[in-house]
Amino acid sequence: MIKIYGAESYRWYVKVFSCPDTMQKALGVNIPPWVKALSFRNCVCFLEQSYWLEPEPNGYDDLLVHECAHCLANARYGKGIPRWLDEGLAMYFAGQIGSTEAIGMPPQEKDIACIGYEDPMLYRYSSLLMDALTSVRSIGGILALADDAENFSAHGPLGDKTLRESITAFKEK
Questions:
Q1: 42-55 residue pLDDT tens
Q2: Which residues lie below 8 Å from residue 146, measured CB to CB, with a gap of 6+?
Q3: What's the half-sphere exposure (Cβ side, CA atoms, 13 Å) at 55?
Q4: Considering all CA atoms of the chain, what is the largest pairwise distance in Å, rounded to the nearest integer?
């Protein structure tokens, strides 16, 4: 057993699957056709590159870092952080935060914390939020805020209202 940021975790494994069907059967979960890799419990799973709809410029490198970041977040926070932060941290550490200038805000009636993996905008919103947050806080500061679940309340520093204000201020720069 190893300790990661104060959380105990078992060994991690990396598996490469020959096709999407094999991955779905082995994991017992539905996998969207655009998925190239995913983290599942203590395992990082990849598809053979021949099944990727779009090639990755760095092959497995960025994906491995991205999926390992999910494993680290899971070890540290369990399932206690919102999807946008889980994806945002993984994208941040993998260097996948891109230009977010053209991305609009999530609709007002949609709580940012409730954006699901099935929403195609999850990754774009996650990137935008990480851009906005890292423009005013260090990554260590963001991780420290995520340690306290109270910070995710609507008016907390990582809550919906505060995040919308952060995005607005970031876009006005």
A1: 788 888 877 666 66
A2: 77, 81, 85, 158
A3: 4
A4: 48
